[in-house]
Amino acid sequence: MNINKEEIHIVWFKRDLRLQDNEAIQNALKANKRVLFLYVFENSLIEDPHYDTRHWNFIKESLVNLNADLKKYNTKILCVQTEVVSAFNQLFDSYFINTVFSHQETGLLTTYNRDKEFTRYCRNNSINWVENNNNGILRGLLNREDWFEKWDDYMYDSLITNQFNSKNFISIEEITKLEKYFHIVNLETPKHKYFQKGGTKTAWRYADTFFQKRHEKYMYHISKPSLARESCSRLSPYIAWGNVSIRQIFQEALKYKTEANKRHLGAFISRLRWQAHFIQKFEMEHTMENASINKGYQKLKKSISVKYQKAWEEGKTGFPLIDACMRCLQETGYLNFRMRAMLVSFFTHILWQPWQASSQHLSKLFLDFEPGIHFPQLQMNAGETGINILRIYNPVKNSLEHDEDGSFIKKWVPELAHLSIPFLHEPYLMTPLDEQFNNLELGIDYPKPIVDIKIARKKASDTLWNMKKNANVKKESLRILKKHTLSDRNSLLENN
After folding, report:
1. What is the mean predicted confidence (pLDDT) over 156-171?
2. pLDDT band at 487 (very low <50, low <70, confident <90, very high)
3. Which CATH superfamily is domain 6-161+171-181 in?
4. What are the residue ranges of helices labelled H in 213-319?
5. pLDDT higher than 80, residue 159
6. For the residues 364-386, what does the mean pLDDT come to?
7. For the chain, where do the domains classified as CATH 3.40.50.620 start and end?
8. In this structure, which long-range contacts are made by residues 46-54, counting pairs with CB atoms below 8 Å and at least 24 apart in sequence?
9. Within 13 Å of residue 375, how many CA atoms lie on the same side as its CB?
10. CB contact burial 270-292 (16+ within 10 A = b; e otherwise)
């Protein structure tokens, strides 16, 4: 133990894995003491069922990218695997920690409880903990009276430009000595064919190609399962893990927006606003992680079917577009918004399963898992908010409209690739003679539909429409509207 310990500041990275437009770093550099960058691979999060290896690999790639940039300043991020309090206890043996700088994380209940524990730890150890707002999300709001105006002001405010100097940081040599006392994480990751690679450098490559060219068909292809992969921004994982800030992307979009592309980039900007809206909703009502935000729907009881859930999770429901979407998500971590909504709708309406039973499976698959988007969207697509339009997606209709040539189904459900278009979308229409002619036996080579979709749709529609009339549902709907509705809802939709 060093009795003559240097007093330092620590920047604790979480889901803000970037060097620029990062207020925590800005605040630390202003504080006139040397800074140590820290990332903790928390065992409690690694073990949390919402997360998957794909998330940790993305984070590792992001850290490698950051370290490559920091090398020129003779520093790097100390990457350790333990719990946060344990990491700081160990650091106290070498340094006196004056202040910890980080952002306010809108995360899972696990991270919320972790932050409460860390607050107590800082108080007991005379550590200052300075948290900054993240992406314009405000903590402690009771309503949305002026939230959008404040968020918009934040988006238009100047980006934070951090200037680095080697003298500001704990050196690589010192960090290497520190590493002897920790379980150090190997940041190497396997090569993969389909997953997007983490890191700010890669994020800006996607951003540049989107704003320069790919956005031109954004609104035409946004609902198409195949074409959306090219025409949508593909920035969601980089925003979710903080490789870029929403403000950086917002301002970049404004730079490129013209009268000619107003429809496309205006719609993209609108979706950035909607994203923030849902994250703010989750920040203000985090109980929706486990329970319906509208308490009237908490009395909705659905029978659990392990058979249905397993078929859905494995992409073996007998409905080609549903199965293609799930298999694609498993392999790539990406699916466009409409197809995500359809997967949830199918699970909760057609299979009549509780949305909670889909939550962890989907969060593990989404490379861009963002709690503040995930849980509000699950409930909205399950029809359990009481304030949103009830949408029961028809997978056949969506298949015919958005995968007209069947290219998406052919890629991800290859056992059907040789079928003609009508049978590709609805293989269960084949007669025994058709099956023989096409060398495909339903129930053997590809599943028969696990439910009668017409009966299931009617049951879901009747039940949920009747529930909207329930007194408790109506009461809760008014409460939700009062708490979460913007004074000017149209501002989220503006394309100018």
Report:
1. 97
2. low
3. HUPs (3.40.50.620)
4. 218-221, 228-231, 236-240, 246-256, 262-284, 306-314
5. yes
6. 96
7. 6-161+171-181
8. 46/81, 48/108, 48/110, 49/360, 49/364, 50/108, 50/359, 50/360, 50/363, 50/364, 50/369, 50/371, 51/363, 51/364, 51/369, 52/364, 52/365, 54/195, 54/333, 54/364, 54/365, 54/367
9. 24
10. ebbbebbbbbbbbbbebebbeeb
Residue pair 159/247 in contact (Cβ under 8 Å)? The answer is yes
Reported as type and span, the H/E element at residue 82 is strand 77-82
DSSP letter assigned to residue 371: H
Domain with CATH 1.10.579.10 in the chain: 289-484
User: Could you tell me if 215 and 249 are in contact, meaning their C-beta atoms sit under 8 angstroms apart?
Assistant: no
| Number of Cβ within a 10 Å radius of residue 152 | 16
The rounded mean pLDDT for the chain is 95
Q: So what's the pLDDT on residue 2? A: 53
Instruction: For domain 289-484, give the fold.
Output: DNA Cyclobutane Dipyrimidine Photolyase, subunit A; domain 3 (1.10.579)
Residue-level pLDDT at 193: 87
Q: Which pair of structure tokens corresponds to residue 269?
A: 């900007």
Alpha-carbon torsion 264, 266, 267, 269, what sign?
positive
Do residues 23 and 13 make contact, with C-beta atoms less than 8 angstroms apart? Answer: no
- Contacts of residue 141, Cβ cutoff 8 Å, sequence gap at least 6: 147, 280, 283, 284
Taking Cα atoms as reference points, which of 339, 303, 118 lies closest to residue 228? 339
Q: What is the pLDDT of residue 1?
A: 47
pLDDT above 70 covers what percent of the chain? Answer: 97
The gap from C-alpha 127 to its chain's centroid, in whole angstroms, comes to 31
Task: Please spell the DSSP secondary structure of 205-231, one letter per residue.
Answer: HHHHHHHHTGGGGHHHHTT-TTTHHHH
Residue 50, token pair as written in the block:
């919402």
In angstroms, the CA 8 to CA 239 distance is 29
Whole-angstrom distance, CA of residue 493 vs CA of residue 263: 11
CB 350 within 8 A of CB 333: no
| Other residues' Cβ atoms within 10 Å of the Cβ of residue 205 | 12
Q: What is the pTM of this model?
A: 0.95
Write the pLDDT tens digit of every residue in 14-49: 999 999 999 999 999 998 899 999 999 999 999 999
* pLDDT, greater one: 388 or 369: 369
Residue 446 region by backbone torsions, left for phi larger than 0, else alpha for psi between -120 and 50, else beta:
beta
Which residues fall within 8 angstroms of residue 425, CB to CB, at 6 or more apart?
320, 321, 396, 399, 400, 403, 406, 409
CA distance 308 to 352: 9
Q: What is the pLDDT of residue 485?
A: 80
Half-sphere exposure of 406 (CA within 13 A, CB side): 19
Q: What is the pLDDT of residues 76-119, one digit of tens each?
A: 999 999 999 999 999 999 999 999 999 999 999 999 999 999 99
Element (H, E) at 155: helix 147-156
